[in-house]
Design a protein that fits this description.
Blueprint lengths: L2 H16 L9 E2 L9 E2 L4 E2 L4 H10 L7 H4 L3 H5 L9 H10 L3 H26 L4 H13 L2 H12 L7 H17 L4 H4 L3 H11 L9 E3 L2 E3 L1 H5 L23 E2 L1 H12 L9 E2 L1 H13 L10 H7 L2
Antiparallel strand pairs: 1-2, 2-3, 4-5, 6-7
């Protein structure tokens, strides 16, 4: 994909998330029954996933962040996924105001590239998906949630894209995910089938290269726009992965084992004991520094992707 196709793909998902091709950096959404809880920003990152904590932390660490001093006291509550933040109007007002800060906008652009776009592009490449619309379909599910689950269902039905026609695989994936959404136990999530319907319209139009101009859900996407009834934002994110970091008491479990094993495969000497202690943090920071990631010792989506997890 070239840069314009990437921006078009992101615009499509922005429309799904916020109703605008360029997104709404200050949008705060909370819907009863949404497993993601409070969501925020251009690509609506969620409180429950821990990604909202990572976004606000990254913003507070940036020079000239206008709202850093006012948002920084909320970081412990964000890290702890404090559900009371869902109804903290002062906090939500700060988020909305911070969305107008050019520093926040730049922070979100970089953050969503690392946390959503890069993992989606890597996932698509690993499956042999090369069309712009195919990558967009993967990206939408990475943002919305439960990409891996729907990927595996599609592979079970039609094998991997490399073993069949990519366009047929993407069409089958869209149908599989639509059926899952339409029959989900969360009634709000059922209403997000519009995402699959919009992608299917692009398939029907044979818009595999995402040629501009495009119209998605009544919103125009043009090269000029990219240069310069609202959607229902219900997260399909399932809390299957927690943020791994040094805490007291130390975090333990199979996900820590998987992290340690991945670090050892990357040639970092480490005892695989399933306990996230200081040694694991030190080796994780070293790995992040080597790969050009933020060396914060936190195993989030971007770090997991870099480790192949």
């Amino acid at each position: 994909m070239d840069e314009l196709q990437k921006r078009t793909a992101q615009a499509i998902v922005n429309i799904f998330e916020t109703g605008r091709a360029l997104g709404r950096y200050g949008q705060v959404t909370l819907l009863a029954g949404d497993s993601g809880q409070l969501t925020y920003g251009r690509s609506q990152t969620t409180l429950s996933s821990g990604n909202l904590y990572l976004l606000i932390k990254a913003y507070c660490d940036m020079r000239e962040a206008a709202f850093a001093d006012r948002l920084r006291p909320s970081l412990p509550r964000l890290e702890g996924i404090d559900a009371a933040l869902n109804h903290d109007e002062s906090f939500k007002s700060l988020l909305r105001a911070a969305g107008d800060d050019p520093v926040m906008q730049a922070c979100q652009d970089g953050f969503f590239d690392r946390v959503y776009w890069a993992p989606a592009a890597t996932a698509a490449q690993s499956l042999g998906i090369t069309t712009a619309l195919g990558v967009t379909t993967v990206y939408d599910s990475v943002v919305h949630g439960s990409w891996a689950r729907m990927r595996d269902r599609t592979i079970a039905a039609i094998k991997r894209p490399g073993d069949s026609d990519e366009k047929k695989w993407i069409t089958t994936y869209i149908a599989t995910r639509r059926h899952w959404l339409a029959n989900h136990s969360n009634t709000l999530l059922r209403k997000t089938v519009y995402r699959m319907d919009a992608l299917q319209k692009l398939v029907d139009a044979q818009a595999w290269a995402l040629p501009l101009p495009l119209t998605v859900r009544g919103v125009a996407i043009t090269e000029e726009i990219l240069s310069g009834a609202p959607p229902i934002r219900v997260s399909a994110e399932i809390a299957e992965q927690r943020l791994l970091r040094l805490r007291s008491p130390f975090m333990q479990g199979g996900d820590v084992v998987a992290l340690q094993e991945a670090l050892t495969r990357a040639d970092f000497a480490l005892e695989v004991d399933g306990v996230f202690g200081p040694a694991t943090e030190a080796q994780l920071k070293a790995f992040q520094a080597r790969r050009g990631l933020t060396a914060d010792g936190i195993a989030g989506p971007a770090t997991r992707t870099a480790l192949g997890l």
